[in-house]
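Data card: per-record layout.
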Amino acid sequence: MLLSDVPNIIKINKLFYFKKNIRFFKISYSSKLVNKNTIYAFDSKKKFKVKYLEEAVKNKTPAIISNKLYKNYKIPQFIVKDVKKETKNILYSLFPYKPKNSLAVTGTNGKTSVVWYISQFCLLNKINVKTLGTLGYFQNGYKKSNTNLTTPEFEELYQYGFDNKKNKYNFIFEASSHALAQDRLSDFSVDIAAITNITIDHLDYHKNISNYNNSKINLFKFYLNSKGTAVINGRLKNYKSIYNLIKKRKIKSITYGKKDIYFINKKNKLFINIFKKKYYLKNLILTDIEKENFECAIACCLELKIKPINIVKSINNISNPPGRLQEYQLKKQSKIIIDYAHTPDALLRVLKSYTNIKKPSLVFGCGGNRDKSKRKIMGKIAQRYASKVYITDDNPRNEDRKLIRCAILKYCKKGIE
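The structure for this 417-residue chain is written out next.
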């Protein structure tokens, strides 16, 4: 698109330093993501600092869209009344084609694994897929870029999912509690919404578990479209309230963990039940964590029109994502498991999953400038469910790392600093 096209798309109050033949391909609210092909948009009234504009200019942005003129910067400036509204109008013109299906996964733990599993199921069945989340942005399994946030701001999310030509991709993304609470999805319509679980996390931001819980439910309340499908974990404590919400909206739902999709262990054999039909899974050994994530992914894949038999044929060829129950075999009876477990529930479930003959040893830490209440709980879990415990640093940010370690050690007496 050319800058000369912009006045035909948005309502402009004033226009300065206009150059009509400059081409651009994207628009962003982040000065860090701006380049010579990306317009920089910002609301001067909302936590804006001139240094952000300076960074955008340094990164050679072709123009800016704002509600205030900055005379010291001789680049094209579109001055508008409502920056958010006009930014969306440009986005809709740049990328008019929606994904074949948009699928959002929320939950405290398991989002990354579920998205990863869905992607692999799609690729093994020759279905085009884009994924976005903690691990970055992928197209058909190939990583294209990193992302700063699990769920980025709306304009970034939109540009990852939508296209400027007929869209051949299914778009699968992680929906974080922060994003749902802050309305980052905005009017991004979701066709399939899935929830993994809800346990304690991010209480430094949400203040209490009720607010955190409600942010997750927002995915089904506001963003899942009326013709979509809800994929719900039947093990959730608030399963009935989510199910009743979906029922009230007259939206289709699939329950995994029981009822519709669930694993069965029978006589040392593993089966998957898919809508009352059992399929034998030969030579497949899964932890309870993996089973739960697979159940969610399978339910989602059914809505992407992958046949049950093809799901069963594919499952043995699917691996865990990097850093999620990632195994390294050392000696014959010794292995290392790397996992992103940064919540009490995740740590507990990982330790329990690998407690066979004896308790595993554990190396872990807690992040800084985040929910401090987790340190006590995770310390107690380590004390009870691990044999040897080594307390180390895990992204202390701006906090004194020694104090973080001490907070854990207070409740984990066997811990070695």
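Known properties of this structure: The first helix runs from residue 50 to 58. The chain has a mean pLDDT of 95.

See the next section for split statistics.
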